[in-house]
Input
Amino acid sequence: QRVLFNGDGYSDEWKLEAARRGLPNLVNSVQAFEVLSNENKVAFLLNSGVYRQDELNTRYSVLIERYNMQLKIEFATIVSMVNQYVLPSVIDYRLKIAMLINSTNIVNTNSGRGDSGDGRDGSVGHLKSILNILSNKSADLFEKTNKLDFSVKEFVKTYSHTNPDVFARKINEVLLPLFKETSGLCSELEELVADEHWVLPKYYDMLFLN
Output
């Protein structure tokens, strides 16, 4: 039977093939690290003299500690960036749109045109739609960021020093999904806010320098 698999190792096809062969499907770092603490899976390393048990224990502890530290830094970084740059940029842009809506309403009122609400004839319907989208997404971002910040602090206080293994699992199961949601909202807002109001480099700037 052929051992090599020349297909896409990230595909569902490989997941099914790996399961058929009895191979593990480790989908994150924490699951991979925990292999080192599984006596059955490291027995061949001990029996062949490649590692001693204390060396495996140390390697596992170092990997977990480094993982926890690096992710804490990433979480603190995105919380800081959202609060110092992203939300202020969105608020600044929202203020500009709100002022434009107000000015347009004044002009339309003075000219007797009014706001038809359909985005035509000088109306502000489309501006209100943009403002509403920005308001909703920035509110979601504020909520997600605060939740991430609070959860990180709670887990650090509860698990970081006394049980780093559990802390690593909490990072993977709870904090990383929150982090991805927060990051996703930042990306969506980046696409909505005009360049002149977005103080951070946009993806385009980083990939294709202006």
